[in-house]
Amino acid sequence: EMFEMCVPEECYTFNLYDSFGDGWSLNQDAYLTIKQDDGVSVVVLNEPNFGEFFTADFCVPFSCDDLVAEVEYEDASAPGVADAAIYINFPSANEATTYSIDGGVTFQSSPLFTNLVQGTYEVVVVDELGCTYEETINVVVGIEDYQDVEFTVAPNPTEGLFKVSLVGYDGPQEIGCRMINAEGRSVGTYMINKFSDGYHRTMITPDLPAGVYYLSIQNEDLQMMKSVIIK
Questions:
Q1: Is this prediction's pTM over 0.85?
Q2: For residue range 158-181, what is the model confidence (pLDDT) as tens digits?
Q3: How does DSSP assign 82-103, residue by residue?
């Protein structure tokens, strides 16, 4: 199904919500694309099981200056230990998008980089038009930027039932989180509600196969990511 809209030339936020939390899981061929009249894609959603919500910022008409991405990462647990990860959330990504964390020396098609050690990484994203996004990320040991914030997943490893808690952060009434698989694909998005002692939610993921996943929480002033092992 396709429909046209005529909108003023400015920036927008597209939000899509699903009350059942399973996206378009009953139709694995479903996808959503927002395009300008010249055919340039400004928003792409090609993951049917997007979870409870999907959101993306975009501007029309699009220019390379409007390119946006969110870089999410899990810090290394100790010096020299290769267990850090970087995930690049690029709303208008498609099969032609490539990602780099070494300043553009090497690229890959997946937005997820794992088995990283402590250090500085130069993130580069190139889209189908050749537009480039760049950002420098410092992967440290422990959660240096959020010393007073505790982000836990328990039990971990898990059989698919676990509790997510975020304590020590005073933010909005609810915040979003994203579950990412080892291939770098989002396999679900969820809302975590705020209680008197922090944010808590019990997660049930019976449909996810065993493996390593990454749970990412991101708000305007908070970015944290933690690996989750499903047995």
A1: no
A2: 999 999 999 998 889 999 888 999
A3: --EEEEEE-TT--TT-EEESBT
Give me the half-sphere count of Cα atoms (radius 13 Å) on the Cβ side of residue 197.
3
Q: What is the dihedral sign for C-alpha 90, 96, 100, 105?
A: negative
Residue pLDDT, tens place only, 96-128? 899 999 999 999 999 999 999 988 999 999 987
Cα distance between residue 181 and residue 169, in whole Å? 26
- Six-digit token pair at 55? 């959101």
For CA atoms 90, 30, 189, 9, give the dihedral sign. Answer: positive
One DSSP character per residue, 132-177 reads EEEEEEEE-BS-GGGTT-EEEEESSSBSSEEEEEEES----SEEEE
What is the C-alpha radius of gyration for the chain, rounded to an integer number of angstroms? 18
How far apart CA 137 and CA 77 sit, in angstroms, is 16
